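pasting HTH arsR-type domain-containing protein for the record, 113 residues
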Amino acid sequence: MHDPLEPADGSTFYAIAHPLRRAIIDRLRQGDSVVEEMAADLNRSPADIEPHLLLLLRAGLLRSHMDDGGPVWSLVPAGLGEVDRWITPYRPFKLVRMADLQHLVESELRNGR
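structre below
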């Protein structure tokens, strides 16, 4: 049986829940990159970054293509569509702090939504 507090692999919300994965997304917003560049930019080792890249890939947030130096990673902005659709109804409330949004998400998870 699936634990409702443990989102399924491939979930966009699960993918963006980790701070390192959000940092990777922010980094790739600046442009395509290889693992070594991202690791250096984020002060992490390539081994720390790679599992997160694969999870973001499975969630549809990243894509990669092979180049002479190995895989080049790119952001897939459309992959954030699920997040955009979810947050759109809340935009009129003009959330002042992201902490408010975090509490809202945690409440939704507790209520099984």
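The helical segments are 12-17, 19-29, 35-41, 46-58, 81-87, 98-110.
Strands lie at 62-67, 70-75.
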